[in-house]
């Protein structure tokens, strides 16, 4: 590295340049630190970044989307990304994924208890891919299986790693009984993440959970949102007439239809007078949800402009999953000018300002969702006020801004490794 970017320790919320993050003071001694870094990124110095991910396109989930966005941003900034991901299920391997950067696929098997998720198999081909690419920094996206192998390969090649915590694997182990206890999942998470130069988390609750389980060197890195694509101006009167022919209030859920998302908590709300529930997405729980939500409209998976029109054409957004490390759909809904009802758990706690941009309700309980949706359905003024406040709250969270922040983390990891090597030689 020829140039050293500017580094400042900053305040958690306000960004003032001399204050230690107060959240870090809540952690027990020895359980890691959480600070937020603000960097002046030198776009003249390029890096070769390998993103080892547990999921990638054509998968539809937060990990796959985040990796794709990151790789796009790296390429736009002149860096050289490589994506290493599991082979998708046989049924979708013929789906063409057109991206302007190299993607190396690793052999995979279905996860026990959740076959829709593929587990990348450890293979020497991963190490070979890093060598061929001449990787300088390894990004581990939601590392657990393939990511753990990526961490081992990086260590063997003496490459720095940045681990991004995106999936509550311990909760998945508990919900799906995948042959691993919750405690064993946390021990493995601690091992993998503590092998990295730094771990990036998307929310304060994720940071607290990792610190509680002994993960060190934890830094905040939130997700970006496309505030041009997701915008209130995409509201469609024609789409609203199609979804609500009798002028019903439209309440929407967007996401993967799986057990852990707990979409069935909206059953009572879907029966409120004058309310129509719209469910966007697909997944293993789709069949059971169609039976438990007979009055809802299921529109399947939507992307791009279609998804943006759906968001903007809703009146209220409801997010029910209690295990979200961030909640990208919540952010997209806020960008679309919608009031949000979400559980007071996980990532939404940082995103939703209770009583200002929406309501945070008790997780796992239908009554809170129903009451909050009833309250919003009764007041167009309240919906408009919350929606406008939500739109204002996401400004400054573009993928460009958070992408540059991530590049700063890469540089810090690379510099720390370079410094360690120099000290080792000097010793």
Structure overview:
By secondary structure, the protein is α/β, with parallel strands linked by helices. The chain has two domains: 6-224 and 398-426, Glycogen Phosphorylase B (Rossmann fold); 232-393, Glycogen Phosphorylase B (Rossmann fold, 3-Layer(aba) Sandwich), CATH 3.40.50. It has 15 helices and 17 strands. The chain has helices at residues 62-76, 124-133, 146-156, 169-176, 182-194, 204-212, 237-243, 267-270, 286-292, 304-313, 328-335, 348-351, 366-377, 380-393, 399-426; strands at residues 6-10, 34-40, 48-53, 80-86, 103-106, 108-111, 114-120, 137-141, 161-164, 198-201, 218-220, 249-254, 275-280, 297-300, 316-318, 340-343, 358-361. The protein has a nine-stranded mixed sheet with strand order 1-2-11-10-9-8-3-4-5, with helices on both faces. A six-stranded parallel sheet has the order 14-13-12-15-16-17, sandwiched between helices. Helix 6 (204-212) links the parallel strand 10 (198-201) and strand 11 (218-220). Helix 1 crosses helix 15 (399-426) and helix 2 (124-133) crosses helix 3 (146-156). The radius of gyration is 22 Å and the shape is globular.
CATH architecture of the largest domain: 3-Layer(aba) Sandwich
Extended strand count: 17
- Please compute the radius of gyration using only Cα atoms: 22 Å
Structural class: alpha/beta
The overall number of domains is 2
Instruction: Give the rounded overall mean pLDDT.
Output: 88
Question: What is shown here, in short?
Answer:
The chain is an alpha/beta fold. Helix content is 37%, strand content 19%. The model is unreliable at 1-40 (pLDDT under 50).
């Amino acid at each position: 590295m020829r140039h050293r970017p500017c580094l400042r320790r900053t305040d958690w919320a306000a960004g003032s340049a001399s204050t230690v993050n107060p959240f870090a003071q809540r952690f027990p001694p020895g359980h890691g630190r959480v600070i937020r870094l603000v960097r002046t990124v030198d776009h003249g110095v390029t890096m070769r970044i390998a993103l080892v991910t547990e999921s990638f396109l054509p998968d539809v989930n937060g990990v796959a989307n985040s990796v794709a966005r990151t790789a796009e941003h790296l390429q736009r900034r002149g860096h050289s990304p490589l994506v290493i991901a599991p082979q998708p299920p046989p049924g979708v391997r013929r789906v063409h994924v057109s991206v302007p950067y190299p993607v190396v696929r690793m052999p995979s098997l279905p996860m026990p208890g959740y076959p829709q998720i593929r587990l990348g198999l450890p293979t020497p081909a991963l190490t070979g891919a890093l060598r061929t690419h001449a990787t300088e920094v390894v990004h581990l996206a939601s590392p657990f299986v393939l990511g753990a192998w990526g961490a081992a390969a990086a260590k063997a090649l003496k490459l720095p790693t940045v681990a991004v915590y995106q999936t509550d694997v311990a909760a998945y182990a508990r919900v799906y009984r995948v042959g691993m206890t919750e405690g064993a999942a946390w021990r493995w998470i601690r091992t993998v993440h503590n092998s990295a130069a730094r771990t990036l988390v998307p929310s304060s609750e994720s940071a607290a959970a990792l610190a509680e389980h002994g993960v060190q060197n934890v830094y905040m890195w939130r997700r970006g949102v496309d505030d041009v694509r997701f915008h209130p101006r995409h509201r469609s009167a024609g789409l609203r007439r199609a979804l609500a022919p009798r002028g019903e209030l439209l309440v929407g859920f967007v996401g993967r239809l799986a057990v852990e998302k707990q979409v069935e908590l909206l059953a009572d709300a879907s029966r409120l007078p004058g309310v129509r529930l719209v469910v966007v997405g697909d997944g293993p729980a789709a069949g059971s949800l169609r039976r438990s939500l007979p009055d809802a409209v299921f529109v399947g998976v939507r992307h791009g402009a279609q998804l943006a029109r759906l968001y903007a054409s809703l009146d209220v957004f409801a997010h029910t999953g209690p295990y979200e490390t961030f909640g990208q759909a919540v952010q997209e809904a806020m960008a679309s000018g919608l009031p949000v009802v979400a559980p007071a758990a996980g990532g939404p706690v940082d995103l939703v300002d209770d009583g200002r941009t929406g309501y945070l309700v008790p997780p796992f309980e239908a009554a809170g969702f129903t009451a909050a949706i009833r309250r919003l359905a009764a007041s167009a003024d309240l919906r408009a006020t919350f929606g406008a406040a939500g739109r204002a709250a996401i400004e400054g969270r573009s993928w460009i801004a958070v992408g540059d922040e991530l590049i700063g983390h890469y540089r810090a990891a690379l510099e720390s490794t370079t410094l360690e090597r120099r000290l080792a030689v000097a010793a």
